[in-house]
Design brief:
Keywords: Glycosidase, Hydrolase, Metal-binding, Zinc. It contains 17 helices and 27 strands. With about 700 residues, the protein is an alpha/beta fold. A ten-stranded mixed β-sheet has the order 11-10-12-13-20-19-18-15-16-21. Mean pLDDT is about 95; it is low at about 640-645. The structure holds beta-D-galactopyranose.
C-alpha cells in the first residue's frame, strides 16, 4: 500500500532542504518534526550539484548520509529529481539547454527554471540525473515516492529557444503532414503570412504591435503542453524502472500551458498542488468587501481535484511569503494555518505538506517563511501545527472519501488556451468563471470542474444534475454529441454567449451561430455585440427578476417547437429581444443565456434550476462560510452506508460535512439535527458558534 494518499490515512509533511543546514541540525530537526506530527519530508528538488557536481561525476555521499540519519527515525521521504535547477557548469558548457525570451535572448543561470524542454542535450542530462537518483535512492526503505522536477511551467510557461523551434516544426509536421495543410489551418492567406517551407516556421517571435497569427499561437500553446508532458514522461518512465512497487510518482503545482490531465494520466499516480491562500489579500483586484478572500483558493483546489479526486498539497503556506524582488503575503493569523489545512482536506487532500520547515537565510526566498523563522526557535506556528496534528487524529476516517457535487462547470484545454490568446474570449470567460464559482460558494452549492478530454464519456457527466459550459467558443462534433447525449438522458446544460463560433484551429465558422450547438440550444443568434460602455449594465428580465447579462450579448431567436423564451433583454437597442432560451431536448433541457454570467445571473440559474444549497436540510450557514461534503465512493458491489466496513475505515457511502469560517470574526451556524463533530468528538445540535477561522467536520452518514 502507498504510504500516503492510500485511502486510509491523512498525513502531514513538510519540505526540507538538508543542503541548506549544517549536518548537526538534521537529527534535531527530524525529531522536532516528528514530535509535531510531521511524518514525511520532501527533499532534493533543487540539489543537482549534490549528486552530479561536475559533468558525468556522480556522488551519493551527501544524500546517503542524510538518509542514514532519516532512517534512524520513522520519517519517510519524497525524493525529487532536481531538473528545475540545472547546474552552472551545464549551462556554461551547453547554452543550448537554456530557455529564451520571445526576442531570442537567453535566460541565463542565476534563477531557476531557465532550461527548455526540447533541448536534446538537456533531455540527456535530465534522463541521466533521474536514472542515477532513482537507481541509487529508489531502494532506500525511507523513500516512499518521487516528485518529478518542481512546478513545471512555473515562472515561465513560454519557450522560445532554437530547440523549441526545431521541435515545434516536428510537432506541426506530424499534425498537418504538408505545409499547405498548415497554411490552410492557420489562415496564412491573411496578411501574406503564407509559408513555403517548414524551415520558415518558428515558435512565435517578436512582431510589430505584438500581433501574432492566433491559429499559430493556439498550436504553439498545445505544443508547449505536449513538450512538458513529454518531459515529465521521460522522467516517469525512468523512475518506474527503479522505484519500489508501492512508491508513487507525482509532481507539484498547476501552471499554464499544460494539460495537467494528460500529464497525470500518462506519468503520475496523482497530482499535488502548492497552496498559498494568503496571496488573496495581496492580489491587484483585492477588495476589502470581497467575501471570498482566501476562500478563492478553493477554486484552485477545485481544479486540483478535477485531476485527482484525492490529491496532496506538496506546499501548504505556513508563514509570511515573498521573494526579495516581488510578492508579499502576510503571516497567517492564529488559526489560519489550520483553516487552510482543512480547506485543502475538505476538497480531497489526504496529504498536506507545509512549505517549509525552516526559513531560508540566503537567496531569493529569505521572506518565504516556513514554520520556523531564521533562528529555529519554538513559535506560535509550530504550536498550531501540533494542534492541527492533534485534530487530524479525530479525522482519519475521512481519508479516501472524495468531494461531492451535483453541479459541474465544463472546461476544455482548447477553450482555455483560446481564451488566453483571444481578448474577446478572455473577457467573457474570466467574468463567468469568477462569478459562477463565487455564486456556488456563496449559496453553498458545491461544484466540480469537469474537463472534456478525448477520454470523457457520458458516465463522467451523468452524475451532474446541472452542467454549465459557460463559453464554449471552440466546439467539436464529438463534444456536441456527448453534450446532446447528456441532455437527452435528462441532464440540464447551461450555455452562455459566444458559444460555437470557432473550430479547433480557432477559425471562425461561416455558419448561423451558435454553430454546432444550434440544434441542442434551439437558438439562432441573428445579432450580437459587446455591451456598449454607454449602456452601462444590460439586464435580462427573467419573470420579473432583473439579472445582468454581462460583457457581451448574443441577441437570440428561438428555433423549433421545443424552444421557449424565458427572459428578454431589458436595456439597450435590443430591449425586448430574447436573452434566455430553454430548449427541451429528449428528457432534459438546454439553456442558452445571451450574456456572460454576472454574480446575480449565476445565482439565479443555481436557484431556478433547483441546484442551490443541496445540504439545506442539514444546516444553515452564513455566506462567509464554505461548506464541503466528502463521501466514500460507492463501488458497484459495495453496500452503501457508513457502518459497512470493519475496523477504522468508514464504509462506502459514509460522508462528512466540512464547515469553514473564513471571516475574521465568529459566526453562528444552525444544525437542523444532531451531528457528531470529529475534531472535538462532541455531538452538536442547534445553534453552534464557529470561532474566527474555525472549522467543523460533521459525520453525516
Ligand atoms: C513554490 C515553489 C517552491 C518555492 C515557493 C516559494 O512555487 O515550488 O520551491 O519557491 O514557491 O517561492
Amino acid at each position: 500500500m502507498r504510504e500516503i494518499i492510500n485511502g486510509n490515512s491523512l498525513t502531514l509533511g513538510t519540505c526540507y532542504y538538508p543542503e541548506h543546514w549544517d549536518r548537526s541540525l538534521w537529527r534535531e530537526d527530524l525529531d522536532r518534526m516528528l514530535e509535531a506530527g510531521i511524518r514525511v519530508i520532501r527533499i532534493a528538488e533543487f540539489a543537482w550539484n549534490k549528486i552530479e557536481p561536475r559533468e558525468g561525476e556522480y556522488t551519493y555521499e551527501f544524500f546517503d548520509s542524510f538518509l542514514d540519519v532519516v532512517e534512524e527515525t520513522p520519517m519517510k521521504v519524497i525524493f525529487c529529481t532536481p531538473t528545475a535547477t540545472p547546474p552552472a557548469w551545464l549551462a556554461e558548457e551547453y547554452p543550448e539547454i537554456l530557455n529564451a525570451g520571445m526576442d531570442g535572448t537567453l535566460y541565463r543561470h542565476g534563477s531557476r527554471r531557465h532550461y527548455n524542454y526540447n533541448s536534446a542535450i538537456y533531455q540527456r542530462f535530465a534522463a541521466n540525473i533521474t536514472e542515477k537518483s532513482a537507481a541509487h535512492y529508489g531502494p532506500r526503505p525511507c523513500v516512499i515516492g518521487w516528485q518529478i522536477d518542481n512546478e513545471l511551467n512555473c515562472e515561465t510557461s513560454e519557450f522560445y529557444s532554437d530547440s523549441d523551434t526545431v521541435a515545434f516544426r516536428e510537432f506541426l509536421k506530424k499534425k498537418y503532414g504538408t505545409i499547405e495543410a498548415l497554411n490552410e489551418a492557420w489562415g496564412t492567406v491573411f496578411w501574406n503570412q503564407t509559408y513555403t517551407a517548414w524551415s520558415e516556421v518558428y515558435v512565435p517571435q517578436t512582431t510589430v504591435s505584438n500581433s501574432t497569427n492566433p491559429h499559430r499561437v493556439l498550436d504553439y500553446l498545445r505544443f508547449i503542453s505536449d513538450s512538458a508532458c513529454r518531459f515529465a514522461g521521460l522522467q516517469a518512465e525512468i523512475i518506474r524502472k527503479y522505484k519500489k512497487p508501492d512508491d508513487f510518482i507525482t509532481t507539484n503545482g498547476l501552471f499554464g500551458n499544460l494539460d495537467n490531465h494528460r500529464m497525470t494520466e500518462e506519468s503520475l499516480d496523482f497530482i499535488t498542488y502548492d497552496s498559498y491562500p494568503n496571496f488573496a489579500y495581496c492580489l491587484d483586484d483585492y477588495k476589502e468587501k470581497d467575501l471570498l478572500k482566501d476562500r478563492k483558493w478553493s477554486r484552485n483546489l477545485t481544479e486540483t481535484r478535477a485531476i485527482s479526486p484525492n490529491f496532496g498539497i506538496m506546499e501548504q503556506q505556513s508563514g509570511a511569503n515573498g521573494w526579495n524582488t516581488r510578492m508579499e503575503a502576510p503571516t497567517p493569523r492564529p488559526g489560519q494555518m489550520t483553516l487552510w489545512t482543512m480547506q485543502s482536506i475538505a476538497h480531497g487532500a489526504d496529504y498536506v505538506s507545509y512549505f517549509r520547515w525552516r526559513t531560508c537565510t540566503v537567496g531569493t526566498e529569505i521572506y518565504w517563511h516556513g514554520i520556523l523563522d531564521y533562528s529555529g526557535r519554538e513559535n506560535r506556528r509550530l504550536r498550531e501545527l501540533r494542534d492541527i496534528h492533534h485534530r487530524l487524529e479525530g479525522l482519519q476516517e475521512v481519508a479516501g472519501s472524495v468531494y461531492e457535487a451535483k453541479v459541474g462547470i465544463l472546461k476544455d484545454y482548447d477553450n482555455i488556451w483560446d481564451a488566453q490568446l483571444d481578448k474577446w474570449h478572455e473577457r467573457v470567460d474570466r467574468e463567468s468563471l469568477k462569478n459562477l464559482f463565487a455564486a456556488a460558494q456563496l449559496t453553498h452549492t458545491p461544484v466540480d470542474f469537469v474537463y472534456l478530454t478525448e477520454r470523457t464519456g457520458l458516465s463522467d457527466l451523468r452524475k451532474y444534475e446541472v452542467l454549465f459550459y459557460p463559453h464554449a467558443v471552440i466546439l467539436t462534433k464529438e463534444r456536441m454529441a456527448l453534450l446532446e447525449a447528456y441532455v437527452r438522458e435528462g441532464g440540464k446544460l447551461v450555455m452562455g454567449c459566444r458559444t460555437g463560433y470557432k473550430d479547433m484551429s480557432g477559425r471562425c465558422v461561416m455558419d448561423y451561430l451558435p454553430g454546432l450547438a444550434a440544434e441542442l440550444a434551439g437558438t439562432d443568434i441573428p445579432e450580437y455585440s459587446f455591451v456598449a460602455p454607454d449602456d452601462g449594465k444590460v439586464c435580462a428580465d427573467w419573470d420579473g427578476e432583473r439579472i445582468e447579462a454581462a460583457v457581451f450579448n448574443d441577441i437570440l431567436a428561438p428555433v423549433g417547437e421545443n424552444a421557449e423564451v424565458l427572459a428578454v433583454y431589458a436595456d439597450s437597442y435590443y430591449a425586448g429581444e430574447p436573452a434566455l432560451i430553454r430548449n427541451r431536448f429528449g428528457k432534459g433541457e438546454a439553456y442558452y443565456f445571451g450574456g456572460a454570467f454576472s454574480l446575480e445571473a449565476a445565482k439565479a440559474f443555481l436557484r431556478r434550476l433547483g441546484a442551490a444549497q443541496p445540504y439545506a436540510e442539514l444546516l444553515d450557514v452564513p455566506e462567509g462560510c464554505e461548506i464541503a461534503v466528502r463521501r466514500k465512493p460507492v463501488t458497484e458491489n459495495g453496500a452503501a452506508g457508513g457502518a459497512a466496513a470493519a475496523g477504522e475505515t468508514a464504509g462506502e457511502g459514509a460522508a462528512w460535512l466540512f464547515v469553514l469560517n473564513y471571516q475574521h470574526e465568529p459566526v453562528q451556524i444552525t444544525l437542523k439535527r444532531p451531528m457528531q463533530e470529529l475534531t472535538c468528538g462532541k455531538l452538536e445540535e442547534g445553534t453552534v458558534t464557529l470561532e474566527k477561522f474555525g472549522v467543523k467536520v460533521y459525520r453525516i452518514s
